[in-house]
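S1.2 Input.
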Amino acid sequence: MTRRVAGALVLAAVLTMGACGTTYVDDSAGTTAPGAATTLAPVRPGTPLDELFDEITALTADLHEQISANQGQADTWARIEDVWAEAERQIRERDPDDLFNFQQAIDLARVAVERRRPADGDKANRTWVQVADDYLERLDSD
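S1.3 Output.
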């Protein structure tokens, strides 16, 4: 590998890693109120993908705020997992090669909640919206 190519690769790696902020939330800022859990209807098998996608979009839209306030993010993540399980099943049956892009958004949401990183919650929403919109557009054009 030439010195120029190696330098370009190092520069690209540094720029890429620098774009990933390390914003963490101070745990001492507050706690979730006891008994704040909500009960939602279970996800019905065969729910249309556009409905599942809309629900995940809505759930991830405020995830960064929930993480910042340390309120409700665990319940939101649990619901995302439930809805994603059905959406993933349907995508896997129809277009298994498309799962990777969706999984990136889901993984960002998981990391956001687990590591208390609001910026990752926001990235998860932006990524999800783009991937879901692209996928639904392709389904409509088929």
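S1.4 Remarks. The helical segments are 3-19, 49-61, 63-69, 73-94, 99-115, 118-141.
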